[in-house]
Amino acid sequence: MLNRKCTLTYIGIICLAxxxxxxxAFGADGHRIISRIAxxxxxxxxxxxxxxxxxxxxxxxxxxxxxxIRGIPKWRKxxxxxxxxxxxxxxxxxxxxxxxxxxxxxxxxxxLNQFYQQLQNPExxxxxxxxxxxxxxxxxxxxxxxxxxxxxxxxxxxxxxxKWLKQNKRRNLHWVWDSGLLGVAKLSVEDYVARLDQASxxxxxxxxxxxxxxWAAESKMxxxxxxxxxxxxxxxxxxxxxxxxxxxxxxxxxxxxxxxRLLMAGIRLAGVLNQIxxxxxxxx
Length: 284
Description:
Layout: H1 4-20, H2 27-40, H3 44-54, H4 59-62, H5 65-68, E1 84-85, H6 95-99, H7 108-119, H8 126-143, E2 149-150, E3 161-164, E4 170-172, H9 173-183, H10 189-196, H11 201-207, H12 212-221, H13 223-226, E5 244-246, H14 248-277
Parallel strand pairs: 1-2, 3-5
Antiparallel strand pairs: 3-4
Helix pairs in contact: 2-8, 2-9, 2-10, 2-14, 3-14, 7-8, 8-14
């Protein structure tokens, strides 16, 4: 095990990385909202176990670390872990997908399983488990963002050029679902959490029964709505001069979807952490 000084040094490095750079996937606020919702549903035993393991680090800030390290040589390999590609005709529960040659560099589903297993192992060094926790929290968020379960052809919407409302700056579709739809509410993280965290006990129980594959399949099922722009022709790519307009109607239709995905991610994150650190909580 690391001693206290080493652990605090590691946490300090994480925090320095977080506050020194701009967030990438799902936007910083999206990951913070998910973490805060999860904290509202952790048992006392789980909360205490996480405090001890992380030296009382802020889970919402730990969740941002995986986006900060992708440019560091040691962690460049992790950039492949933030997404998984699947074509429109494939299904996660089909033999075809099981037989599909997954990227040897890893993907979002394999990463979730890897870090889940590491969190379950109390014999691992504390630094390894803190890293696993950071990755796991982050990837639970990513898998609930529909375009992190995307089409390889347009790189999960990154190659789809869009014009955001009346702004002249060109964006891409992935940015819309990472940050744009959340930003229009102009709410603080705390206000967003208070607004969203209204799930019933029945919803919580149902959502926490689903598997990682279920989470991914749900994101893929939202694909038709994500790509519904009301256009008669395919949306232009970033290499073209034209951009697909993101209208207020598009925002009105899809903002509730991404908000529900945030809520589901937070509820499910809490469920998995309780399962690991306080399994008796789920038996109640």
